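The material for today's practical consists of a large collection of protein records. Read left to right, the backbone structure tokens trace the chain's path through space. An example says more than a description, so a record of this kind follows:
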Amino acid sequence: MKYSKYNIFSKIRNSENYFIINLLTGNAEILGIGEAEKLKAFMKGQVLPNDAFSQELIAKGYLSEDSEENRIYRKRYLDFLDSRSNDEIQLFFVTNYSCNFACTYCYQDQYNNPSQELNTDVIDSFFNYIKNEFAGRKKYITVFGGEPLLNSLKQIAAIEYLLQKAEDEKLEISFVTNGYNLVNYINIFKNRSIREIQVTLDGTEFVHDSRRFLKSGSGIQSDCIWY
């Protein structure tokens, strides 16, 4: 019996307890300090006592044999292949990498962002690709950016066209947005088949505004209108 290579084992921040997760079996536990010390001793080569704790580690896959892990891995992979053809597909549509925010941790600001605006030709090409490549599959679309809901008449018109195309194809749409201009899109959203709108926030107003602010430098939450 060996310590599983699929385990993640670590101390919980600001706590005496530990956690262990096995990515193959999907099991997860909170361990007290005594249990954690036993497991650490086993990882250093000591023999675990044959007690209820050891049996639980084995039963849940934290301790295992290579042959058993290989069997579970093969089964999970075959199950994935069987379900892949029937599972719902999430198709991503990036409207642009432009954004009205200047978040401190943004990685997309390093992307090459040509000035070309979203237009109907691009949207038509996207839906033609869906028809050709994903015909007969259950699917929905998630729209994000950059910031997909920028406050410009051209962007609003493009998003409205995108929604109409999705409705024609009987596809639901989700949006990921910072929410700053959401009020400007309410009228074109309210009668459409939208699965969800995810508005990204980073906690309280003070925390959020210290990390996520407009390119002009002003705060966000205090300026937003929420519905």
